[in-house]
Amino acid sequence: MGDTFEAVKEVIVEVMKIDGKDLSMETRFIEDLQADSMDQFFLIDGFCEKFDINISDEDARKIKNVKDAVEFIDKAKA
């Protein structure tokens, strides 16, 4: 999970143009990072590209924070 977290963090830093030092598993995309709908789209797209997985629209709506993303990606890669 640590490797996945670091890779998810890289995507978030790149998409959101932020310094990732304060990112944690509890960081929420909308409330904490002020991600709008386009940011969310680019985050999901970035995760799909980085991990070579597909995330359906239904699953994407369930990914609200870093932990959700890491857990979904770990499960998709398993």
From TrEMBL:
The gene is acpP. One of its GO terms (cellular component) is membrane. SUPFAM superfamilies: ACP-like. InterPro entries: ACP (IPR003231), ACP-like_sf (IPR036736), PP-bd_ACP (IPR009081). Pathway: Lipid metabolism; fatty acid biosynthesis. It is found in: Cytoplasm. Belongs to the acyl carrier protein (ACP) family. The lineage of its organism: Bacteria, Bacillati, Chloroflexota, Anaerolineae, Anaerolineales. It comes from the Bacteria. This is Acyl carrier protein. GO terms for molecular function: acyl binding; acyl carrier activity. Carrier of the growing fatty acid chain in fatty acid biosynthesis. The modification O-(pantetheine 4'-phosphoryl)serine is found at S37. 4'-phosphopantetheine is transferred from CoA to a specific serine of apo-ACP by acpS. Keywords: Cytoplasm, Fatty acid biosynthesis, Fatty acid metabolism, Lipid biosynthesis, Lipid metabolism, Phosphopantetheine, Phosphoprotein. Residues 2-77 form the Carrier domain. One of its GO terms (biological process) is lipid A biosynthetic process. The keyword tRNA processing does not apply. The keyword Cell membrane does not apply.
